[in-house]
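User: Predict the full complex structure for these chains.
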Amino acid sequence: MNRWIGAVTASFVLMLATASPIAAQDTTAQAYPLRVAQQPQRWSLAWYLAREKGWWKALGIEPTMSMFASGAPEVAAGASGSWDVGGAGDIPAVLGAARYGLLTIGIADEEPAINTIMASKDMAERYARDPSLIKGKTIPVATNSTGHWAASTCLEKKFGLKPDEYRFLNLSTPEINAVLTSGQYDISMVWSPNTYILASTIGAKVICTGKDVALPITSNLLAMPSFADQHPDIVAKFLAIYLRSVEWERAHPQQTIEYLSALYKSVGVNIPREHLSQEMQDRPTFTLAEQLKMFEPGPGGTSKVAQWSDQVAEFMKSAQIIKRAPDVKKYVTGKYLLMIENDPQLKAFAENSQD
Amino acid sequence: MRVVESLSWRWLIGGGSAVVLAIAWYLLTGPLEVLSPVQFPTIEDAIDSLSQLMGPGYAGATLWGHILSSIELVLLGFTVAVATGTPLGLLMGRSRVAHAYLNSIFQLIRPIAPIAWIPLTILWFGLGTAAKVFVIWLAAFAPIVINTITGARNIDPVLVAAAQVHGASRRHILFDIVIPAAMPTIFTGLRISLQACWMVLVASELVGSFTGLGHIMILATRDLNAGMIFIAMSCVSVLGALSSLALARVEHWVMPWRP
Amino acid sequence: MLLPALGLLTLFGGWALVSSLELVSPHFLPSPFVVFTTMVELTREPYAGSTLQQHLLASLDKFAVSYALSVAIGVPLGLLMGRFQILDWVVTPVFEAFRYIPPIAWVPFSILWFGTGFLAPTLVIFAATFAPCLLNAYRGVRLIDGTLLEVAQGLGAGRLRTMTEVLLPGALPHIVAGLRVSAGFGWQSLIGAELIVGSTGLGYMIVQGESNVAPSVVLAGMITIGLVGASIDYVLRKVEDRIRRNWGPSGL
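Assistant: Here is the predicted structure of the three-chain assembly.
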């Protein structure tokens, strides 16, 4: 009689043992396990390159990458402390700063040109010619994103619409692609690489970008505050790896496009070549020297990045996402860039443009 | 006497463990700081969120607006499932031909989790009521059909034969013998199906919607507003419990002879 | 034999016809052949970082861990609650408070507590599978003939022996029925969790397919989910039948 009970119990124990996540992980000797949050975005290329070129290993880091569809779920996941460093748009970055003191330690890229409003093939020109047609429309956006910011500013400044003349619908980016393809909505917020996907599948066209309305949209490099307190050296190394990739990309533009294509393919996104070079052009990245300038306090005592972040916070207050702006002095920090600048070895690493 | 005594003990102990739960909530979010306010609301946060929802509203509507829109979807999906599932179940339960033909289709589609249909239904129907009702219907349909088949099959054949001998029409047999006899099993199916409705409702509202309790949850997650999540979750839970109670009431009303 | 085959033919024939006549655009519904070739391709070429098998394994891994956890906690707790009334009284209010929360509604908190890694979907699946495990074990014990227990105790069986040799076997048919229901709920919620927050697994693959407007990938994922769900159910049904035959009271 006990045979069956034994068998059932044993099989569950076995299931537990074989399925346990700990068994699946192999520990690399000595390398520091760093948890990195990324998105299917151009700037995640840096970490892809670092793996290919062995830069992580060179600095003794063993990264675990987590992929997020956009910044909002990434910052939500950050609340659980499930990643240490990463990248995200400046809106989620400031949201994280307001809620749990998330640090902005560098600029991943500049991207006003790729945060857009797209419209269907048939409607694009008509909307562009007569924006009043947009009145009363429902417009899908991924809320709390840079795209959200670009879209509402575009609607206000370029098309002259008031917030109560249209309706935003919160969707994740995969769903936005789906509803535009099915023809449910003919106008929406879209950012790259989804712009390219929609251009090639349904011939959708961009009718406004963040660049048209001069928004300082960036994606930022981030660190969890408690992690940065305990491991400033690791954060600086993480930043150095990113900066090295910037140098390498500038020195090898052709190869960079190959790698970007491979990166997008690895997340299931297939983009034609001409769009990829467009992507590189639209999203400039910055070297150590350039970033140091952006984080350097200007004549008014605040750095460029701090001014941008305050502008982001203003928008978020007006959109009622946050009640009061977090203190830029606390969460925008050039400290880790300076750590690299002051460490000759690390500086040489960050400015090395070769393999 | 014994019963009364044990009942009051039961309430005392049960109430005690509810109090312990509340104290644990207070301690974990307050003095002990095990859960940060971003991860789980303090009792104050929850009350703040509730009053915001009741007053100015959140995520595009007040609490009542969200609740009504969620209830509407569940009722629609559930009703359509009952209206389609019971006749199909009766047909498959009483006719061998129909069962042989339809069961293979049914068995092939059924194991696909209804929630997995959500991306496809968004492509097909968009994000409006139709897509959500379709997914809710999918989830609610299977338990109803399966239980109705079982109920319609397990009827004493002697009863049916006797009715036939006395010249009862097929309609009479169906309405006076088969359906009443299958009723208890059908209701088992309805209970399972109602719970499935709430589950799928939340999933489809989380994925994309204009209003509804799931809509509050996903926006609150993006805003890192744990109080709102908590309130929306509690509402779903209370509504789920109330709808189960209501169904039990209906069951009692339809079959007064059952305890 | 003929009729079931005819049924399948109607299903696939209808699908093939609708898609080949382009009654709906291929962006919405690719033909069964396209879906089949996509499935074969997915087993060889990685999509969204992994092949179909790897996505499947990732899903099964999460499923197995949380299911095992539910069983390991739910069944013993249910048995004890059935046996000891005090425990029943203590646990029931807490249990009832959580019972009507749909498992998917745990997704937001699971993100805030555990991020999107392994533990987040695990919490959601646990929420789905725990209740049926506990309830069925509880019911199983409550339905055991009281005299059986008295006899066992009269014969001098200790608490532990009563538990393992009277309660557990007596309740076993119910427990196994609960395990089957619970596995179905768990599998379904896993997919829901992965759709909304996943970074691995079949649900994640479907979302990526949706994102790239590749409905054949979405359908391939759905079919895999169906096949696995059906297999899990099949295995547990066999176990259930077997146990009913060996232990179940006649007529159950």
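Chain A has a mean pLDDT of 89.
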